[in-house]
Design brief:
The chain is an alpha/beta fold. It has 2 domains: 178 residues, FAD/NAD(P)-binding domain (3-Layer(bba) Sandwich); 79 residues, Alpha-Beta Plaits (2-Layer Sandwich). The protein is built from 10 helices and 18 strands. The strands form 3 sheets. Strands 1, 2, 8, 9, 10, 11, 17 and 18 form an 8-stranded mixed sheet that branches. Helix 1 runs parallel beside helix 3. It is globular, with a radius of gyration of 20 Å. Bound molecules: flavin-adenine dinucleotide (FAD). The site of flavin-adenine dinucleotide has 39 residues, from helix 1, strand 2, strand 12, strand 16 and helix 6. Pfam families: FAD_binding_3. This is Protein CbrA. It comes from Alcanivorax profundi.
Length: 358
């Protein structure tokens, strides 16, 4: 049995980011994952701050580049908010994950596809992972990057939380009279928003709710929104929870470091999870490479604090939407769009809005 330095479970954005850094530093890395990109629901929007965080360009998988965001209090008319430069890019998530895994492999990471994990055993010197196929792998460390329904969390008896929820589908561009810009329709669903993300040959349409149980972003709600907004029903519909529980979880258990949605690193206001996934994957790698894995929670402390603040803001924002959405459209919108895109903290956005150069 090969003895790996680290097993990364999950080849999503958190897993690929961790695997890239660890393999680039010469560690023996095994990425164990279900089929890469297979049906993971995600609208594939990457903000400027995420593009800056990635170790490589993702130009080959970019479908659209966005500089203007259209924001409405649905169904009222939308207002364009201009970002200074590029706001985000649109990708197809399966293409993005396969591309990022190839980059990690090019650094030396090994990849094995599995149907899932059966057990994890930890002891003083390392850990053993067995898969549903009956294969066993040993390593010194494990990065759990297996998403919001993390099996690693469950196998280790860690608490499971319910966070945000989203559902998405596709509409063919050819079926539309008008190809929309990137649009957020706040209040298209209670406690959240509807989105239209243009992707070249199709539009990704979806519904997001920031907290579990507020409303059901289900197939009927999505069909209804899509019919009213675009005049046609979506195909390829799927939903998934988002990990928004970082302020409440432990980031490590023994030799296991949780990253991405498995650690709850998604910000709850908009449900942007790719940034937190890449960031936490890189921080997990940094802690391991320093041979001080216990530093990982420390490296994540600022992001955890920021997400606590964003959680409070989300509660207020969606509860007071008749006031907060016009405020966003006409007063603070462009500052927030810039801050969101570039990765400014809420405190920095406030200073920027008051005219400070940052
Ligand atoms: C509908 C929807 C739209 C979204 N749109 C956006 C967006 O536009 N922009 C954005 O920033 N965020 C978006 N998000 C959030 C984003 O998708 C997640 O936050 C992000 O994918 C988290 O990355 P991750 O690597 O932690 O987990 P995931 O992307 O969930 O990756 C987990 C990986 O682990 C594998 N895996 C799972 N279980 C096992 C197992 N038992 N054994 C082995 N492998 C396993 C999976 O196959 C997958 O490869 C969206 C979420 C949803 C639900």
């Amino acid at each position: 049995m090969t003895n790996w330095d680290v097993i990364v479970v999950g080849a999503g954005q958190a897993g690929c980011a961790a695997a890239w850094d660890l393999a680039a530093a010469g560690w023996r890395v095994l990425v164990l994952s279900r089929e890469v990109g297979a049906g993971k629901p995600c609208a594939g929007g990457l903000t400027e701050k995420t593009l800056r965080r990635l170790r490589f360009s993702i130009t080959p998988v970019v479908r659209e580049t966005i500089d203007t965001l259209y924001v409405s209090r649905y169904p009222a008319a939308d207002k364009p908010l201009q970002a200074p430069g590029r706001f985000c890019v649109m990708t197809e998530r399966a293409e993005l994950d396969r591309y990022c895994l190839d980059q990690a492999k090019a650094q030396g990471a090994n990849f094995i596809e599995t149907r899932g994990l059966a057990s994890i055993r930890q002891d003083h010197d390392g850990l053993t992972v067995s898969t549903r196929e009956g294969d066993c792998y040993q390593a010194r460390w494990l990065v759990a990057a297996d998403g919001a329904n993390s099996v690693v969390r469950r196998l280790l008896g860690e608490r499971h939380f319910l966070g945000a929820m989203a559902i998405e589908g596709h509409v063919r561009r050819d079926d539309l009279d008008e190809y929309p810009g990137m649009t957020l329709d706040f209040d298209a669903i209670r406690g959240g928003y509807g989105w239209l993300f243009p992707k070249g040959d199709h539009v990704n349409v979806g519904l997001y709710v920031w907290q579990h149980g507020i409303a059901a972003p289900d197939r009927a709600a999505l069909d209804n929104y899509c019919l009213q907004r675009l005049g046609t029903a979506p195909y390829k519909v799927s939903g998934y929870p988002l990990g928004t529980w970082l302020p409440r979880v432990r980031l490590m258990q023994g030799r296991v470091l949780f990253a991405g949605d498995a650690a709850g690193c998604t910000e709850p206001l908009m449900g942007e999870g790719i940034y937190g996934a890449v960031f936490s994957g890189q921080m997990a790698a940094e802690a391991l490479l320093s041979e001080q894995p216990g530093r990982y929670p420390q490296l994540m402390e600022d992001w955890r604090d920021e997400l606590k603040k964003v959680e409070s803001l989300s509660r207020l924002f969606y509860r007071l939407s008749p006031v907060s959405i016009p405020l966003l459209q006409h007063w603070i919108g462009e500052t927030l769009v810039e801050g969101f895109s570039k990765g400014l903290t809420l405190g920095q956005c406030k200073r920027r809005w008051r005219g400070a150069d940052l």
